[in-house]
Amino acid sequence: MITPRRRILAHLLRPTRGGAATVLIVFAALLSLAARAGFVGIPLALIVISWFLKYAYILFDHTVRGFDEPPTLDIRMVNPVDEQRPLAQVAIFGLIYAALNFVEHTLGQKHPIPSRGSGWR
User: Fold this and answer.
1) CA–CA separation, 34 vs 11, rounded Å?
2) Spatial contact of 58 and 6, defined as CB atoms under 8 Å apart
3) Where are the domains of the chain?
4) Apex CA 68: angle with CA 63 and CA 69, to 5°?
């Protein structure tokens, strides 16, 4: 019988198998190159982070659907207008930040509202 701990471990080890490990290594090398390039490397870093988030969402979709092997990176995954979920998530976080900032300035800091950081003030 497979225990829940082994099931979770199998899902956590999924990104280390097959093409997913190669994708992670290439992304890490590209991010390292972008960091060493300084100001000029910012566009490369943004592009690679976008690709990584898109791949992470697709890997999550494959895991939820029960596929055993991780997906291979294809041209649709690196298309900047194809997958918009990571951009939508950043927009949602930005709206939450703006709403909390508005409430904090409207009510003041004496009221117990969630802070923009982590936890409560």
Assistant:
1) 30
2) no
3) 4-78, 84-121
4) 95
- Distance CA(48)–CA(80), nearest Å, equals 11
Q: Which residue in the block uniquely carries the two structure tokens 């927009």?
A: 91
Environment class of 23 (CB within 10 Å of its CB; exposed 0-12, middle 13-18, buried 19+): buried
Q: Is-contact 85 57, C-beta < 8 A?
A: yes
Q: Which residue has the tokens 């280390």?
A: 16
End-to-end CA distance of the chain: 46
Q: pLDDT of 45-97, one tens digit each?
A: 888 888 888 888 888 888 788 787 778 777 877 776 777 777 787 788 889 98
Its pTM surpasses 0.85 = no
Alpha helices (H) in the chain, listed in sequence order: 4-12, 18-37, 42-65, 85-107
Buried b (16+ CB within 10 A) or exposed e, 30-56: bbeebeeeeeebeeeeeebeebbbbbe
